[in-house]
Design brief:
With 160 residues, the chain is of the alpha+beta class. Helices cover 38% and strands 26% of the residues. It has six helices and seven strands; from the N terminus they run H-H-E-E-E-E-H-E-E-H-H-H-E. Strands 2-1-5-6-7-4-3 form a seven-stranded antiparallel beta sheet, with helices on both faces. A hairpin with a 6-residue loop joins strand 1 and strand 2.
């Protein structure tokens, strides 16, 4: 399994910005590119928010832990699979489960790959984002090369 180095410094801060911008009028625009996943901290029990690329198939939303099984939000939902999902102005409670079925995994990864090509930073901002240390197009290529070692998660609406 390939693991990627976790972001540091300014890039780490930059990766937190999308979840912070997910308010007011920006929520509708951001929802086309990112969802906000709220997990419960596995040690603290406090809400933890992450902005993630996603793909949708029916009622299932797929996300991938791009930094492997040590990704914080992934470790949190493994401890407590009850999460909250926000896409645009819509919010709902969901249950998270790691995909192990090879056929569903292949379908989910293909959806994410296609979605990633359309999502990410707007083309005009990509040079700035690259200067900060995140080459989005290289990230998509790395996704293709390393997806086998990344946990794929399905988020489904929680029963009421």
């Amino acid at each position: 399994m390939t693991t990627r180095e976790r972001p540091r410094g300014l890039l780490r801060l930059f990766l937190r910005v999308p979840a912070l911008l997910y308010h007011g009028q920006l929520a509708a625009w951001m929802g086309r590119r990112l969802l906000v996943l709220t997990t419960r901290g596995r040690r603290t029990g406090r809400p933890r928010v992450s902005g993630l690329n996603y793909a949708v198939a029916g009622e299932t939303v797929y996300v991938i832990a791009g930094y492997g099984p040590s990704t914080d939000w992934y470790r949190n939902l493994r401890a407590d699979p009850r999460v909250e999902v926000r896409v645009g102005r819509r919010r709902w409670p969901a249950l998270a489960r790691t995909i192990t079925d090879p056929d569903e995994r292949r379908r989910g990864l293909e959806l994410l790959r296609r979605s990633a090509l359309q999502q990410g930073p707007p083309r005009l901002l990509r040079p700035l984002v690259t200067r900060l240390g995140l080459d989005y197009d290289a990230e998509v290529r790395a996704f293709d090369a390393n997806a086998a070692g990344m946990p794929l998660v399905a988020l489904r609406p929680a029963p009421v």
